[in-house]
Fold these 3 entries.
Entry 1:
Amino acid sequence: MNKGNKKIYQRYKLITDIYYQDRKEGYIKIYPNNSHDHEVVKFEIAYKLKKLGFEIYSECRFTNDRGRADLVAIKEGKGYIIEILHSETEKQFEMKKLKYPEEFSLIKVNTKDFNIEEFEI
């Protein structure tokens, strides 16, 4: 398999981990039960990554009841789950982490000390 086909296959595998109804690329879902800071950070990250060429999925559920991620970013066959913490405890985060598909790299972001200029994948 050549490099281009391998990236396409890897992307396909990542996308199929996302529940079918949540595969709306580029849409940012807003939930009023999340804090304002949480939603602003989610938007800032999604906007920056979209401009960098990532596919972006927000508040997407994973198949087989493996949780829901704040953001999923995919580029060149690599997937990232971005979990934004505002009021969640470390223990809650660790529990979520256990459910997520292992094909994705996990990035934890705290709203308290967030700076979009310093954010990188």
Entry 2:
Amino acid sequence: MLPDNFKQVSKQTLVIQQFLMEHLPEPINLQVSVINVSAEEIVVATSSPQVANYLRLYVAEVQQQIQETFQLSQKLTIRTIPDSLLKIECSRDLGKPIKVSNQTAENISRGAGWIEDENLKQSLESLADTLKGKSNSKG
């Protein structure tokens, strides 16, 4: 289940990303990603320590521009994270999902019985029930 403010955060993230693309100098603007917007902070990440240091040098100015442009009050935080984490993209063509046997659904259901966290237990049981329904309807 997604948080109640997921759409708002997603929209803010995209808008701030576009703002940075337009207002930061090249090639800095191509090396930054807005990775989170929360009530307390806006997190901008880069894989380059040099770019991160550049942004930290001007963080007050960039933060002020973002706050004034979007009427936000969050603190701007700069993070350096591996490039492999920044470049994760979903393929648009994921292909057809594989069929899951009734035995696999039963194993998930049986495994859920051992889980102490009630939310996780319910999620696994729901998944198993869904998979059982799909397996029965396909054959």
Entry 3:
Amino acid sequence: MSAIGKYALLLLLIGNLASQYVPFNPIAGISFYGTLVLGAMYCIYNCKGLFIKDNIKAASFIFVFVAIYLLYQFTFGLFYIEKISLMYLAAKITVLLIIFWGITLHYEFYYRKIIPYLSITIAILIVYGLFFHNYIIHGRFTLGFGNPNSTSAIAAIGFATFLLIKMPSKYISIAGVIICLFGVLAGGSRASIMVCMIALFFKYRFSVKTVVLIFGCLLVALYIIPMTGYKVIGLDRIMDVFANGNFVGSRQDVRRATMMMINEHPVIGWGLRTGIQGEAAKLTTMGAHNGYLDTIKAIGYPYAAILFGACIYIFYRMRLLFIEKSPYVKFHLFVIISVLLAAMYESYIIGVNQIITNMLFVSVAVLEYRCYYNIQDEDTEEH
């Protein structure tokens, strides 16, 4: 039974990745829902472990989300008791607890061992997608993934891994960086391109080398690559943002619609897993493309304030991690910062079967576990 607790998280991440990679879609549902069932069974069988004081303290980020979701659903959420909201609540909590048990039972595996394999898998998927399953949407490549934004976001995780973590060979690192950076640029996501710059700062810190690297990459992308006939859509979109001062792109209507709903029910929210409705639906039926606004829309300002305030406090307690030299700590910090920033442009945080959202929770969980038990790496050699 302990093997389920250890490796259900691995199955979850595989299912998350499969759900966003079109050739794997036929097995994605089976993988994800099968993992949820196994995870739920394990949590019920080992429910006593969920109330151990040290477990709660070592994974407070996860338990804060679990507690807030439950409290909301059985207070203000009683106004919105529907099948879809209860299914979302059960799935989200199960996913969070799968992450909790995975880190608690197999910390080293998810902190360090899985990362190189994840990045190599991402690089292989990008290459396969380019040659066998690529669709171009308004000049942006999917490379086998469901949409260009997913392509860029997942490729950015791979880029940071190859940049920060020591691989078996330097040639694997170089090839991985090139392939994943291509994936980011081909997907054309502005947020993911900015995230790659954050990875460079984690690698080289604030130095002349960092500035020269970023400046050189921009020159290549803006002037050299276009000479080959390929245009870097993502950089063009970033330049357009700064030129026009439009930092929400074409998403003004979805933000306005979400704010209309928030202003209509600022305290009690609209319930978990609620789409755009009412007067707001006349503007759009799409979500806010902003994890924070989607959270406020769902649970209202009071619970959202408690949730975000608790998260800020937890991050404050982890502040000393920024001075550590371990490349694995840097990688997980990169994931946390990049996803939290990207959540202003994508509906992260609230997702369930979403690898970027779940990578956020995994990275926070392993670093919080590390801090609580004061675990140190035997080897902090930087790549």
